[in-house]
Every structure is written in structure tokens, then in C-alpha cells.
Amino acid sequence: MSEVHDLPEGREIGRVVGDAPGPTLIVIAGIHGNERAGVGAVRRALATLTRRQGRVMGEIVAFAGNLGAMRLGVRYRERDMNRVWTEARVADLEARAAAGGELDVEDHEQLELIGAVRAAIARARGPVYLVDLHTTSAHGLPFILFGDTLKQRKFAGVIPLPLVMGLEEQVDGALTAFFTTQGCVTFCVEGGQHDDAGSVDNLEAVVLLAAESAGVFGSGLLTETGAAYALLERRRGDLPRVMEVVSRHAITPDDAFVMEPGFANLARARAGQLLATKRAGKVRAPKDGIVLLPLYQGQGNDGFFWGREVGAARMRLSEVLRHMKVDRLLHLLPGIARDPAQPSKLVVDERATRLYHRDLFHLLGYRRVRSEAERLTLERQIDRAPG
Ligand SMILES: [Zn+2]
Question: Within 13 Å of residue 326, how many CA atoms lie on the same side as its CB?
Fold first, then answer.
């Protein structure tokens, strides 16, 4: 159960600074106020790192996400703090704050958090990594999601939990996506059910392995990270190591959508299996694949996401294509143009979309697909130098 000691006293939960320069790992816990397992987890990881301070290079620092909501034990008060991180919105917030404009509770939380993270980036003595810790209302296995860049694949790839690509890109304004644009290498983890003591263990293990992946311990392994690896490897069960979102099953209240019972957060489904029932009929799995984040409670526009396993060969293929910078040629294809204001964005004429298999774009990291008027826009995250 949630306990009082899960409450941080202030924005900074703690930090360990090595004498030698090295990478910075920033950990965010409780950006959703009812997800406090991350606080206990990062405190334990910081205690381990304090004992191992002689091995620490650079810095690890942890911040509370939505302090006010954490004190109340609610997800948020005015608005979801994991949907407010677009570059435009952050610029608007900072302009309003500078002009002495009106700010609500979560505006204040966000400003304080940005300030803390920016200060950590400014004093960094090496590359900056950021991990955002979450838990879920439903029971289910822990998993990792991240924007599909090569640096982020490498950072998250050492953690033996299922890695989900293409999910972060389905939402607007995720914290990790924003800090990727600020030069950080990031991932987000769902550690298990909110009040399950096992979720604290899972997230603690993730923080230790993230520190190791970032290079906080230099070369060589710690016994603590060996145990963390073994724990998460067991947790993964028979789920594939890497999977990707292929499509989103969008719903409206009129659909009277009812998910079939029994699906976990990530669950395999066989071709033809009944997934859900709607007023218009039954929804069946189009082929063998994976159901992600099925909607069982409350409201939402996402019935579920449909995904599939990504094998090692496909991972390598997309890596090779990106190293060859094949994406630089995409705008030469008929019907495809690069957005002049935003080089990471492609605009595909609607009539041209059927010429190209979506796979091509996925392989190159374009996972954010939006229909706008007569065209399709495709965006991807890109590795950036800090600054
Ligand atoms: Zn969350």
C-alpha cells in the first residue's frame, strides 16, 4: 500500500555525485501523483550508489514530478503532467511566467521541474540521460517505452524487460520526448501495479541498470546490477524482448467498446482471436501479434494498441538503414516532402501514401503518423547534441 515515506519532501529526492567527471543520469518519479513506487525505488537505488560512491563517475539525481498531486495521492489536479511537454507549450509557459501571467498548480510544478532538470543539464560533466518512472492501475508485467532513436535503443536495450517502440510517439507532450529534444537520451518505464511492493523492486532494478547503461560506474559490473538484471529477466516471462506498435484501435463513446477480459498490459494474441466487441461487431486479431494497453476501465479514445514482435534481424536492418542515412533520400520520392520548418517531419500527399509500405517509415524511425487534411505527416525523434 502507499505509505507516507513514499512522499518526497521537496523537488529533489536526492543525488550522488562522483569525484570523477562522467555522465549524468536524471530520474523522475511521480510525474503522475498516484504513482509513488518510483520514489521508494529511487531512494533505494541512491542508497546503493552512496555505498558505491567510489565507483560513481558523473552524477545521478532524482526529482519528484508532481509534488502537489503526490501529496493528495491523485494522478493530477488540473491536468496530466505527462501531456504538457511540447516545445510550443513549454515556450508559452515560460513566456507567461516571465510576464507575470496567471499560472495554475501544475504550471508551477512544471516550471519548477524544468528549472531543476535544466540546472542538472547545465552542471553535467558528460552526456545526460533521463529516465521517467511510472506504474499502472492494472496488474501487468513491467515494460519500457522510448522514442525510437539509435541512442535510445542502445540506452534502454541493456534492460531485459520488454521494449516497446512506437508507443511514446502515439501521445503528444510526453516528458521523455521533450527532454530528447533537449539533448538527453531517455526512456520511460511502467514498473507494475501502483501499490504492488514488487513494482518498487522492479523500478529500483531499472534505475541501477540505467545507471550502468549510462556509464555511471565506468567499466566493470557491480554485484547489485547483476541481481537487478536477473530480477527483470525473470519478470519478462515469455514476452518478446522487443515489440513495436503497428496501429492504434481508436474508439468513440458511440462504439460501445468492450474489451474481452483476460488481456494483460502486454499480451500475445492469435490470428482470429476475439479481442473486443463493439456495436458494429466483433473485433478480432488480424494475425498473430500483441495487444498493448487494453482499455478496461474509465474513458479513453484508445481501445487498445496492436503490435508485433521485432526480431533481431529487423532491429539490425533498421540500424543499418539509419547509419546509411537512407532517410535523407525519402523526400526525393513522389508525393513526399520534408517540412522546411521541421526537418524531422515528412509530409506525404494522401494519394501517395498507398505507394509506400508503412514499414519503410517505421524502419527509419518515423513512428508518429498523423492525418492532417489531405495529407499524412510522419515524424520521428532524433538524437541531438545537448545544448
Ligand atoms: Zn504514469
Answer: 13
Nearest-angstrom CA–CA distance, 173 and 24? 23
78: CA distance to ligand 1 center in Å? 15
Distance from the alpha carbon of residue 43 to the mean position of ligand 1, in angstroms: 18
Q: How far is the CA of 221 from the centre of ligand 1 (A)?
A: 30
- What number of CA atoms fall less than 13 Å from residue 231's CA on the CB side? 20
* Helix, strand, or coil (residue 241): coil
Hey, which of 5-14, 77-86, 202-211, 339-348 has the most confident mean pLDDT?
202-211
Ligand 1 centroid to 32 CA: how many Å?
5
Q: Given this structure, which CATH class describes domain 243-309?
A: mainly beta
- CATH of region 4-236, choose from 3.40.220.10, 1.10.1740.10, 3.40.640.10, 3.40.630.10: 3.40.630.10
Ligand 1 geometric centre to CA of 35 (Å): 6
3-state DSSP call for residue 176?
Answer: helix
Report the predicted TM-score, pTM, of the whole model to 2 decimal places: 0.89
Q: Say yes or no to pLDDT of 353 above 80.
A: no
Closest CA to 247 of 352, 369, 142, 382: 369
CA of 132 to the centre of ligand 1 (A): 9
- CB-based contact 205:40 (threshold 8 Å): no
State the residue for C-alpha cell 555505498: 51
* C-alpha to C-alpha distance for 387 and 385, rounded to whole angstroms: 6
361 CA → ligand 1 middle, Å? 28
Question: Do residues 245 and 80 lie in contact, with contact meaning Cβ atoms separated by under 8 Å?
Answer: no
